[in-house]
Write the structure tokens for this entry.
Amino acid sequence: MRFFILSFIGDDRPGFVHEITEVVSRCEGNWLESRMIRLGGKFAGLARVSAASEQAAVLESELSSLAQGRFSLIIKAAETHASLETRQYTLDILGNDRPGILNEITRALVEHDINLIEVSSSVAPAAMSGVPMFSCSANIEVEPSLSMVVVDEQLSEIADELAIDILLEETLPE
């Protein structure tokens, strides 16, 4: 079995995803997981798919042919990695929008070798005032030996400097 990550971006229109899933299906592949969204009139997605080793080259070829001149497509082989022992946290950020919020947060995370697993952010008007509000929710993973007290203190300093709220909570295993 071979695994791939597909990254695709094109004009938003009905049937866009179906065209891709149809090729995966025709090549006897399996759509395992995905994240997709419309942003700025474009539709963007990431998907992890699998195919039998003997069908992998056909799948790549047919997907590339489908995309030709119609949308951007990147296909990367995905390797399976041994699961490392880590701790998971959620990071929620909310505050008046301004440039650099996510840059400051990610700078602090990389200083502690913290890995981002999933990030979703948006800017929307506040309910009462209409002021643009930045909100972000992220899932992160950290090495078990990392002291999260130090990380939390640094994030609190950033929150104070930027006048935003940052909530860091450990995610309990299911």
